[in-house]
Design the sequence.
């Protein structure tokens, strides 16, 4: 059975169709769910795609967190279902308290649009469970607020619990500990700044994002047991 | 009673303020070489109806914790003044 993935659409999201296409390309079923909806229609997994949800007014993700659909996303996460936030989606997950820390402006104060190398650090997350630890992936980034930060105690916990999912090989934005993506304690909620959907077909210049999306579909269908 | 609240949101100490750092590098180019510790934040003003100043303050503080600021990286200061009843 193919995995059913809900792709949340906020006013201002702009990567939802790319994500949906990449999921379907890999044999999954994608369904766009509007932010005003209150249930995920029985989806196995949720992706919060990139963009500028609610115009990113006040702070990135600050308003999106109050959209009705976020209750359903939080419930899905609590039940152990895979939830992935890409770029703006990562920012929304931190604002919603589903992931610790925050994403602040890039250290160089530049909007970054580039292809970067990230190293898979942990394979205990829903987004990396079928990847190889240490694998280096070439994936596009496209953000102004991707500079991950958290307090020292949180960083220590992330490291000790193997929750740093991927690190930049060459840190582009000043992110603490070169962090490109993290997960929650159970590993089912993942946030990352790079866009795996933009590296999902040869014509896009890289297929390195496939292993991540494949992991998500595996986690969604097989109920891959993530160590708690 | 109506109160005007002025909220100043700033970065927590230790959190990188790239905007402040950039402006700090730009000012010497205009000849201001005696400037340091520039921090750039946000100013939010709102009018809140509450029975008294304490209640108004408490409510604005709650708004700061829940929405106006991100306590992970931001600090906030609240100033409450009574709106001129004539206005």
Sequence:
């Amino acid at each position: 059975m193919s995995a059913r993935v809900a792709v949340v659409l906020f006013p201002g999201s702009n990567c939802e169709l790319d994500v949906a296409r990449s999921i379907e390309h890999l044999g999954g079923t994608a369904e766009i769910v509007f932010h005003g909806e209150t249930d995920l229609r029985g989806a196995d997994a949720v992706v919060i795609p990139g963009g500028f949800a609610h115009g990113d007014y006040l702070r990135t993700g600050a308003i999106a967190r109050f959209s009705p659909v976020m209750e359903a996303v939080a419930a899905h996460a609590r039940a152990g279902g895979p939830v992935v936030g890409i770029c703006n989606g990562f920012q929304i997950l931190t604002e919603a308290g589903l992931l610790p820390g925050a994403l602040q402006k890039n250290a160089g104060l530049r909007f970054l649009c580039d292809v970067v190398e990230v190293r898979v650090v942990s394979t205990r997350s829903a987004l990396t469970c079928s990847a190889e630890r240490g694998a280096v992936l070439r994936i596009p980034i496209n953000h102004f607020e991707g500079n991950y930060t958290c307090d020292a105690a949180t960083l220590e916990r992330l490291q000790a619990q193997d929750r740093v999912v991927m690190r930049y090989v060459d840190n582009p934005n000043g992110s603490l500990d070169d962090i490109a993506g993290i997960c929650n304690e159970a590993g089912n909620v993942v946030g990352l700044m790079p866009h795996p959907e933009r590296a999902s077909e040869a014509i896009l210049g890289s297929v390195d994002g496939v292993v991540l999306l494949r992991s998500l579909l595996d986690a969604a269908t097989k109920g891959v047991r993530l160590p708690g | 009673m109506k109160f005007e609240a002025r909220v100043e949101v700033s970065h927590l100490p230790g959190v990188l303020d790239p905007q402040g750092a950039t402006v700090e590098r730009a000012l010497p180019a205009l000849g201001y070489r005696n400037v340091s510790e520039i921090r750039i934040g946000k100013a939010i003003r709102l009018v809140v109806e509450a029975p008294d100043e304490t209640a108004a303050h408490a409510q604005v503080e709650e708004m700061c914790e829940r929405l106006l600021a991100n306590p992970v990286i931001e600090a906030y200061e609240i100033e409450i003044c009574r709106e001129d009843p004539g206005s």
